[in-house]
Amino acid sequence: MADFVALFLTDLVLGLLLGCVLAVIAHGLNIIWGVAKVVNVAHGEFIMLGAYGAYFLYLYGGFNPLLSVPIDAAIGLVVGMGFYFGFLYRELRGKESMGLQSELVTLVSTFGLSLVIVNIAQSIWEHPVGILWSPGAAQVGPVPVPFGGLYVAVVSVALIALTDLFLTRTYLGNAIRAYTQDIPATQLMGINPTVVAAVGIGMGFSVTMAGGALLTVWLPTGIDPTKIGILYAPISFVIVVLGGPGKMWGSLVGGLTIGLIINVGQLFLGGSIALATAVAVLTLIPILLFRPEGILR
Amino acid sequence: MRRLSLRTLGPTLLGILAFLGVLAAIAGRMPLVLLTLVINLLIFAALAYSINFITGLTGYVSFGHVLFMAVGGYGLAYGVGTLHWHPVAGVALGALVSLALALGIGAVTLRFRGVYFAIASQVTALAGFYIVLEVQELGGGQGIVLNVGFEPIAWFYTIWVILAIEVGITYWITHGRLGYGIRSIRADEDAAKTVGVHAAALKLVLFAISGLFAGAAGGVYYWQGSGIFPNEAFSLTFSLIMLAMIVIGGMGTLLGPLFGAVAVYLSSQYFLTVLIGFEFVIIGVLVVVIALFLPEGIVGTLRKYVPELRGLIE
Amino acid sequence: MKRTLAVSNVHKSFGGVRAVRGVSLALEEGHVLGLIGPNGSGKTTLLNLIAGVAKPSKGEITLDGRRIDGLAPHRIVAAGIAKTHQIPRPFLSMTGRENVAVAALYGSNKTRDLPEAMETAGRVLGLVGLAGKEDVASSNLTVQQRKRLEFARVLATGARILLLDEIFAGLSPDELRDAVALFARLQGELGFGALVVEHVMRAVLTVSQHVVVMEEGSKIAEGTPQEVVQNPAVIEAYLGPEAGRAPP
Question: Strand, helix or coil at A297?
Answer without folding.
Answer: coil
